[in-house]
Write a structure and sequence with these properties.
This protein is an alpha/beta fold and about 260 residues long. The protein is about 50% helix and about 10% strand. The chain has a five-stranded mixed β-sheet, sandwiched between helices. A two-stranded antiparallel sheet has the order 5-6. The relative contact order is 0.12.
């Protein structure tokens, strides 16, 4: 069954039902402090709520936005009919349980793109190796060969995204991910085929997009929208809402977006 935007809402509700600690009320510094405003401020610092906001954005606008995002992140224009796939990778690609969980996955007839978003957390070579594993399995089990890309979305720059803080190229990061890949993965400890990872590392396009760059893309798309039409009005509210959230979170400081 295909997902629609209402599924995104219920997915978020389900997540908070299973992990209610994300909605735990923060302590007030004084009895007069507005608890609701304090909770909202706390949520605006967390990654999970932003993930849900972007889930809505990509569910409703992937077909246009993904082409622009890929062009900005990897410098290539990939024309395709993209849609936001669900997160049921374990079922769809027969992956081991608890092996890989992408933030966003975009599928097309000729392309498979995954996206990992960060706000305060950092990434490492093990996480990159898991993404390579996902793309390798998807390529092996797919009906046809596809082009692959992994895009990181975060504040700051590519080098500040990494736990080790080293300023390495995309190619060096891919090589290191293969070298540091776990021998087994998932709850069932399925063995990882290193040769398959090497093949995918040589094929996949790796890229980085800052939240400021994302906001610029949304602003550019909004300028092309017919604001007088019903569809255009809906699109503008969607795009402006996400840009506003990124601004409120101070994730696009210095991007030029106003």
């Amino acid at each position: 069954m295909n997902r629609n935007w209402t599924d995104v809402y219920y997915d978020a509700c389900t997540f908070y039902s299973w992990e209610p600690q994300h909605l735990r009320k923060p302590p007030r510094k004084s009895p007069s402090e507005d608890r609701e405003a304090l909770l909202r401020k706390t949520l605006k610092r967390k990654e999970v709520p932003l993930n849900h906001v972007l889930d809505f954005l990509f569910m409703l606008g992937a077909e246009r936005l993904v082409i622009e995002i890929v062009a900005e992140a990897i410098g290539e224009k990939w024309s395709d009919t993209f849609y936001l796939a669900g997160r049921n990778h374990e079922e769809r690609y027969s992956l081991p349980v608890n092996s890989v969980q992408t933030d966003f996955t975009f599928e097309g007839n000729e392309h498979l793109i995954s996206m990992e978003m960060k706000v305060g957390a950092k990434t490492d070579s093990i996480q990159l190796a898991k993404y390579l594993y996902f793309h390798a399995i998807a390529e092996r089990l797919g009906e046809r060969p596809r082009r692959h890309a992994l895009i990181y979305l975060g504040p700051g720059s590519w080098s500040t995204l990494w736990r080790d803080k080293r300023d390495l190229s995309y190619e060096a990061r891919l090589e290191e991910a293969v070298q540091n890949a776990p021998e087994k993965i998932g709850r069932d400890q399925q063995r990882v085929d290193v040769a398959e990872l090497k093949k995918m590392a040589a094929q996949i396009k790796l890229g980085y997009l800052s939240y400021g760059q994302l906001a610029e893309i949304l602003k550019s798309v909004a300028e092309d929208v017919d604001r007088q039409s019903w569809e255009g009005g809906v699109a503008i509210r969607l795009l402006d809402g996400v840009i506003g959230d990124l601004q409120e979170r101070e994730l696009i400081y210095g991007s030029g977006v106003k």
